[in-house]
Amino acid sequence: MKDDESLVQHIAGVVENWIDPFQSVEQLCHFASGFVATEENKKTDLLNVHDKGMGALRLFADQRPRRMEARTSIPHYPSCSS
User: What average pLDDT is seen over the chain?
Assistant: First the structure.
């Protein structure tokens, strides 16, 4: 029981210290490229995240080797906007 409480407290501490990229006064910077996100970048990325994910899923499914008889279509996931 103590271990569970400790884990819950740890998770609560992490969540409390998260930086909201839409409210932060600090710059949001990509570690690898050094690119600093603008407000427009953040909004556009958030609005297009579903389409980008589906595109990545399709690319993965198209490039993944599989046997002919095992081929299936990409599953349909409901859009968050519908």
Answer: 80
The answer to whether 22 touches 41, Cβ cutoff 8 Å, is no
Tokens of 68: 């002919």
Amino acid at 45: D
Distance from C-alpha of 33 to C-alpha of 6, rounded to nearest angstrom: 36
pTM for this model (two decimals): 0.41
Q: For residue 12, give both structure tokens.
A: 């609560």
Residue of 1, 47, 43, 51 whose CA lies nearest to 22? 43
Q: What is the 3-state secondary structure (H, E, C) of the chain?
A: CHHHHHHHHHHHHHHHCCCCCCCCCCCCECCCCCCECCHHHHHHHHHHHHHHHHHHHHHHHHHCCCCHHHCCCCCCCCCCCC
